[in-house]
Amino acid sequence: MIANIVLVLLILGIFPLWKLRRRYDNIIVSISFLLVSALFFYFIRSWQTGTESSFLMLWDSSASGDIKISVNSTLLNYAVIFPFFVVAVVSLFNNLFFRYEKKKRAFSSLIILMLVSFIMLISGDNFIQVITFVFVIDILSQILIQDVYAGRRYGIYNLAADMGLFLVFALMHGKLQNLDMESLAEYPSLGNYQILMAAVVLISLLIKFGFFIFHSYLLDLKSARFHRLILIPYLSTPAVSLILLFKMRSYLVEYEVFCFIFNLLLMLTVLWGAAGAVIMKNLKEKSIYFSMMIMAVLAKLAETGTTWNLSFSWLFICGFLFNICIYYLHYYTNRENAVVFSGCRTGCGLLAKYVVLAASVMVTAAFILTLFSFRTEINSVWIWGYSFLFLLAGANMFSQQLQENTLSLFTRMQDYRPLPVLILTAVLSFIAVYDVYPIWQPGVWSIILFALLLWLKPVRRVLKDQYCDSLQKADFFSGFYNAVIARPVKFVGRILTLLVDFVFLEKTLVSTVMLSAGIIIRSFRQINREGALRYFLFVLTSFLILAVFFLRSRI
Amino acid sequence: MAENLLLIIIFLPLFGSLFVAFSRDDDAGVSRNAANVSVWIVCCNILLILRLFSLIDVNLDAIQVFGRIPWPIAPGGSLTFGADVLALLIVLGIHVALLLGIFGLKDVKESQKGILFSSLLFLSAAGGFFLAADLFAFYIFFVLMILPLFVQIGLSNGSGQKTASRFFLYNILGAFLFLISVAALYAAKNDAIMIDHISDIQMPRKAGIFIWSGVFLAFVLRLPVWPFHYWISSVNTALKNPLVFTSVSLMPVSGLYGFIRFWPAVVPEEISSFVPVFEFLCVLTMLYLAFSGYSSTSSRDKLFSYIFIYYLLYLLGVFSPTDVLQRNIAYSMFAFLLVSAAMIMIVFYIDRESEKLQNSPNGILCLQPKAALAYALLILAGAGFPVSALFWNNFVIVSEILNTDVYIGTTAVFTMLLTAVFQLQNLYDLRDKSCLLPGQEKIRDIDNLRFAAGTIIVMVLFLSFIKPLWFVY
Amino acid sequence: MSGMFGLLNMFALFAGMLWLGIQRVWGGFSAKDYFLTAKISVVASIVFSLLIKEENWAIPYFSANVPSIWTFVLTAGVVYLWLVLSLKWFVVEDLPACLFCFLSLAALLCCHTIASTVNFGVLFGAMAVLALINYLFLYLSQQTEELHNISSRYGLSVLFFIFLAALSLYFLTPENWDLQHSAGAAAAAGTLKTYFILAGILFIFLFMLAVAPLHFWFTDTIAPAVLPVAFYFSLVPQISLWTAFIKVNLQVLRPLMDNLDAMYLVLGVLSVFVGAIGANTSRNLKKIFACSGIYNLGVMLLTTASFTDKSVFAGLVYMQVYILALAGIYTVFYGFKSRGDYLYNLNMIGGFAKVRPFAAGALLFFMASLAGLAPLPGFWVIWAAMGGFAHTARFGLTAVVLGGMLLLIPAYLQVVRAVCFSKKNTNFDRTENSIYAILVFLTVLILLLVCRPQLLDIQMQWAALAG
Questions:
Q1: Structural domain boundaries, residue C287
Q2: Which of A95, A395, B225, C29 is least surrounded, with the fewest CB atoms within 10 Å of its CB?
Q3: Residue B113 lies in a domain
Q4: What is the pTM of this model?
């Protein structure tokens, strides 16, 4: 079932890349959206029928084992794929209205190919398939980001994480002589380099999540276009990391120390994310910090042993929708930076902002409601604390946005077409969440709290809208990495080149050889210099040689 | 038929070189005729190699299809050639690499004809070397590769003179060491020695150590293992000609191939006990190259570091105590040769164009969208992303290295990472529009021929990712 | 009768010399005419030699076999090339061409005598005449005071060694001058006399072959000599002297071989290193290749030292291959010409390849052969030599030969760098067609030999080498 979907998606993903005139862009993008939506319904129907099947293809074989491509249509896989499908469909829909996107066809194609890669990653049950699609998603993410500055550190950080996973998988393949992901749990029993490997896995996952101390590459994304940025956490590497965490949990939980470190960093990520979402003026940065917070809670759930069920999927989707709301907030103020001093004067613009606010409140409520559905699995202090911070930061952002007035560039009604869909999506998601977890209190409380915070503006009162400029530009961790890794590596490289090639080889070895050759040549010239005496000496030498041999012999 | 095909593949470039030698230059001193002849010869040979692939059993690892040339000097009275998947893949890779090098020669005016002539000779010698089935032929072509390359280096630029001599001396030292060992082997068995049956020769232990030390030292001298790396680093940094750079970069393949053929089936225990030392030296050199590549600001230096780090990775794979990696090394190396040659072609073009800019080349790719696309794709392939056969085969190679020694393997992966990082950084720098300085109006994008070549290479690489021997029918 | 028939080649040379004399007396002949006479004479002698090559003949004082005839053919061939190449110099410089041609034929005659005689009296006599011819050649090219001094020193040295040789002849007494009897007579002469006899025989050979440490005259004379004379010194006498040296060792000194062996090895090793290092000390092309000659002679001596069948044949083949390659190299040197003057210094020949790519390519090719690069003939001889060393369990000599080559190669590389890679700094004269013709001939010959080594017509020797 899923295999069929993958095949059709692949065709749909490649088709828009076909070189056609630009005027067909909207038609193709619309067709893509419709077809993917149809596939989504087919997917839901297949999931509901509950029949499981598997597709297996031999990719390559070698002396050390066969590599198979597997697409398993299990209920678990359906549940895991579901949110990504939603993210893809919503993004394809948004692409119909994205004003800033110049290459709509390519963007649609990219989203579909991303979805295919995620399905393959989720279905993967062997090291090669998993690591392959981890890499593939990274490549697609790079294309998605598009901006060179934004993609620079993103590419390098993720490459480091990918190579870490590559190392771990390669080692496990070598030691276990098995490519099966399930054999991962057996590795600790072998007792070889466990700490080293677990540390590599943990660091790789943390980098890919973009969690505290590894998050600075995510902040670079503020240079990317907003509609691309919002996809990164949910259809790119942080989501990959989430899937990998689910796949490798059985291996990581064996090491208590790593669980402790992981939890600690999760907590710090939530705090740092909340602080960032409050302090930063740039709406894109705020969005990134919110994503960090959302991913942190998802990772926390994954770490505690939660299975990827429908509730988890809705939590994921709500997180994504929250970011969509931030995007539309940006969309209708038409300002990417300096949100503090932005706003809308026109009636349409103001209305749009309130519609977005309403949708955001619904989505936030849905998010909090879903989060509370996991209260048996994680500490309630964690949930309450997290919810409070999330609402505080969210309310602060919206209060900032609603207060300021600037001119909106939107004058045509067609620019407001996404609004009904947005509010509809928000409501539907709340209903869907309520359908899964039919308790209304957390949702209502969160709406009330959100409204209260929006009205009271506690953070703004404390900070008095004074945002330190140096704080806005500060990037503590990139400076730290530069000082600790990049510069030392560069320095060592230069010193080594100088020492090994120039000082040791060129100036010591080669020079010594040249000097010795020079001495030999000069001596030779001295011996062979002009004059009759030389003739005499050479003849004498030859006589001596002959005499020695005659005397030594018994002639 | 296959036997004749084998010999044609070896000697066709040799005959082609004669045509090149007698081709006429045009008024500007550019040898278009020579270049065209070279391209045709190499293309024909590529087709013949592909045909030969279809005539052998690709599932078999042993040398097949023996072609013989009677030669009274050779022990056994003839030089024997043979082909297996490993050898044919390397030969194919070398042909494609040199073809790309010839495309890259388009903007270089100096000594084109001489360089093309020597390149074809080199190609012939390389073909003979990789397809040699007996030890004597192996040695003959091992040596024969040196002279054309020496001429190429010498002709490529004025500052290459000293480095050309250095190159020759280093390589001839290796050749002489090999000669001593070969002579000793033939003294032990005065008949033809097939390289896949070399272990049949019975010799005293001490003699074995002496002989194998000579053989491996000869191979090591071809590889950039510290402290023998200097010839290649000093040569490559002086080169400004893409074809010559490609040829020089292909030279270590011969040393590597020597190790693949001779190691580890037959080495005496005394030598195999030195494996950790060899591995340590390899890893040390990899680290050194990775650090120096990272710290360098030149694209060519980075490319050089990248190429040689990968050779050393394969060497580490060869040292691992298993014979199952041969295929993986072959597949990976084939893709690697293609990637590196295509990257050389593009990097040299970018470098040449960037000389028109007043300062650094950073940002130049913003003005060269075709070059940027091709270069980015090649960097992805080269960095080991899953778009070429490098990916999965490197995975297997690394897993075997890790299986042997985790620290060596981890360091190797670290150097691979560092390599990929500095390559990516270079790409980002070259695409950074904010760095673009005056002079940009003179910058030209890569021409259609090279762009097409780059694109085809990327397609070939991708197909090799899906199925390494996709071209065998 | 067949023996007399075998002397036809010598008669041809005599006739040539005679005709040159008549031409000189008659007057009115140009340099071209003299050279034509000499060339016809040389060609006739080659033809006669080839006609009789399968026959082993013997007459008083002379005996010929395949190697000696091949020696003559090779020497005569080299002399022919030399005459062809040298003509231009005489035409331009208006030099005494008749004397030059006469001396060339006389030298060839002496060489043949040296290679085919079986009598010490004739042998040393021919060597003395050859030494005189050498001196006259130096005299002919005397243009500087330096060369005048050198030729004087050469004359004195050669006189000294001829005197030593004469002394050994005196001790041997004329009835024992025949090679076959001389060994016994020398042994019976008493210890001191035996020493004198051996020293006399060996020194004249070692001196004329320029084996280190008696190499001094060789580099001294070749470096300043004009190119045609340098060509002669480097190529013409060496082949016959080497053949005669081997013959004397096999027929006379074989009983003493156990003792001489070690001495030859020492001299060989010395020559190898003196030649190899010496070649690096100069930027004079002729000196570089003179030193290379000393190196090659050292290798030949090391190869032959044990005087087994294998080693002797290896030495012979080595000589032939070496001469072929060197002839090619010297032919290219004739192309290094600017405003009528031959260029010898590496600084002056920069960029030759830019204007004469084929000649430069040929130079590279011949030098590759000389450097022993596979699969060129220079490689086979090193391979054969190594086979010989392995056979006699002298593996160290392989290291000496290859080590020496490694020292020599930088000198070759200097030449290649100057010719092929340096910037052009001289306006070269047009290269004569004859030079190209000879280069093509030699290149094709070497390529043919690469493909079919048996063309050297030494199957027997080769079988022994390979076997």
A1: 255-467
A2: C29
A3: no
A4: 0.89
